[in-house]
Design goal:
Order of helices and strands of chain A: HHHHEHEHEHEEHEHEHEHEHEHEE
Helix content of chain A: 40-55%
Strand content of chain A: 15-25%
Oligomer: homodimer
Largest sheet of chain A: 6 strands, parallel
CATH topology of the largest domain in chain A: Rossmann fold
Shape of chain A: elongated
Number of strands of chain A: 12
Largest interface: A-B, 36 and 36 residues
Number of domains of chain A: 3
CATH superfamily of the largest domain in chain A: Response regulator
Mean pLDDT of chain A: 94
Chain lengths: 340, 340
DNA sequence: CTGTTAGCGCATTCAC
DNA sequence: GTGAATGCGCTAACAG
């Protein structure tokens, strides 16, 4: 249907293609009369400009790339929602690049480092290497990192050290001393960093209170409730068992709750558990946790990218926004048992 | 960097652009010698073809549109995973269109009905109108519906009538008679149909057993655990209360479990609950439910679309694939209490 | 095997 | 105000 081209419209309206183009981009210098005739022709032919042709001519792609670790992170949906909310009315197409391996990440980052690919790039939770950053900079394609950081690239992120610190301090203030830090693998192929940062915060809080760091109190488990459950069972079998667990993500925290329930370990009386992220389930389960603004972070990242796109040409200094985290004290944390 | 054009390569390799184009699309008729020279030039210039220009020239967009109700359906992630898995290696860009209002749906469907927009369209859980279907057909742009159905458009879906039937039959066979059907709003703005279909299955099972249909046993609640929880509280306050609830989605079923627990109604002794979807949480909570292949459905939909794209030109008859559903009997359903 | 050329559909100088 | 002409970067006949 819409096979009509700008030329057809021009012919029908008895004007030149240039004029049609002008009314299309409502250029001021077109007489009302001609404009009307063109509009009529457009409507009659059910014409709409060919996006690809426009893009080639304009030298823009009208496209934004969003790079996400779609399946590894459960929190991505919330972030993506925030992103989508902003971009939906921006006129940009949102193309999704899912990376689930380092190789794919490298490939995407390499191919995206061109204005010919996308006008801007939004990267969720995947830290680019220095080399990647260089390429992005050289290609002069605006990039915003969400939940990731690189000094040379704009970003929106949270202070994970602070988050880990808050969670641990909370437990310490309740009298806990044998606090386990349970996290997803600290060294993962995608070099997802927050888990390490949270560990730093954990250690910082411990150090502040003069509690010696016990390496056996740092345990890693694969992502997912299941893995955390098994890890927790092992933990609770220790003698003496920990009195508190700081899980680096809510999913893990829930796995810990599972194990505790199954073993008859009462929470929070015998075991305190604090999670991280504040996913919807956390509120429901009354899980004490560190709240991080998932939706917000996506939204702000997208907005920042649009801003960078506005100020085209001016490759200004990167803008970094750090959003606050907050400890939510719910029902899974309480004073440490006294029979230590 | 990659500002080099095909002309630059041609110049450097001392050949014509046509030849460069040939090696790019590894056309056979190029002498090994020339090919090597061109390849060298390409590498030296760090050249890569401009996607937009290619598309304009080829008359293809190399793009697939995926239309999703991103935020209303919790199951979309699983489906999208399936889609992504297939498309990631297809060479197509995957652009995401999120619709959360009828208006947006209409807008997207209208603008997508052109080959100029996308080479193919994948629609998740949003039934197009007859008018939409006509437009897609007229534009000759391949469309695959996932979890939705239209006679003229290819689709991958499940038999929701059967699902509703299975769930209800299961309850009936356990001796239940006062069975409530709890569902998301039957008439929703996006005209999402499965809830009605499941109701049909429910009624069919009832009818088969000669159990009179009681309109007060059909209750609607907004999406989400919370709303279901409130609805369930009201239900359990009835005298006599229902002995079983068939929730049209697992999230609702979980809300029912919440209410039962809070009111001290034991499940499954005093109340049987069966859900629908078999989301990850369902397995964990030991929820009896109707399993539907979320990931599979997305995967197959994407594969079907690619197939349609292969057989370009031939606008064959629509292909419909109906995937089986299955009742998973877990711990939330049991024989009806005898003290009726 | 390789080069020349004509589009693809639109935006945009530059004249008039 | 409007039109003719040029270019965006690449592919695909058509010649040679």
């Amino acid at each position: 249907m819409s096979k009509a081209t700008i030329r057809d419209v021009a012919r029908k309206a008895e004007v030149s293609v240039a004029t049609v183009s002008r009314v299309l981009n409502n250029h001021p210098s077109v007489s009302p009369f001609t404009r009307q005739r063109v509009m009529d022709a457009i409507r009659e032919l059910n014409y709409s400009p060919h996006p690809i042709a426009q893009r080639l001519s304009l030298g823009r792609t009208e496209t934004l790339a969003v790079v996400v670790p779609l399946f590894t992170l459960p929190s991505f949906v919330e972030r993506l929602r925030g992103v989508q909310k902003v971009l939906s009315h921006s006129g940009y197409d949102l193309v999704l690049f899912n990376v689930d391996s380092p190789h794919q990440r490298d490939e995407y980052f390499a191919t995206l480092a061109t204005r010919a690919r996308a006008d801007g790039i939004l990267v969720l939770s995947i830290p680019p290497s220095d080399e990647d950053a260089e390429r992005f900079l050289a290609a002069e394609v605006p990039v915003v990192l969400v939940d990731a950081y690189h000094p040379q690239l704009s970003s929106v992120y949270i202070d994970d050290v602070e988050g880990g610190y808050l969670a641990t301090r909370h437990l310490i203030s309740l009298g806990h001393r044998r606090i386990v830090y349970l996290s997803e693998p600290l060294n993962n192929p995608l070099e997802f960093g927050p888990m390490k940062k949270r560990l730093q915060g954990y250690r910082k809080a411990l150090a502040e209170e003069g509690i010696p760091f016990d390496p056996t109190c740092v345990v890693e488990a694969e992502p997912g409730r299941e893995a955390a459950y098994h890890a927790a069972r092992a933990l609770l079998a220790r003698r003496p068992p920990p009195t508190a667990v700081f899980a680096a993500c809510d999913t893990h925290a829930i796995g810990v709750l599972d194990a505790a329930r199954e073993l008859g370990v009462r929470v929070p009386e015998a075991l305190s558990v604090v999670g991280y992220d504040d996913i919807p389930d956390a509120a429901y389960l009354n899980l004490s946790t560190v709240h991080q603004p998932l939706f917000e972070t996506g939204r702000l990242g997208a907005e920042l990218l649009l801003t960078l796109l506005q100020g085209n040409g001016g490759k200004s200094a990167p803008i970094h926004r750090r959003l606050p985290v907050e400890l939510i004290h719910r029902a899974t944390t309480a004073f440490a048992p006294t029979d230590v």
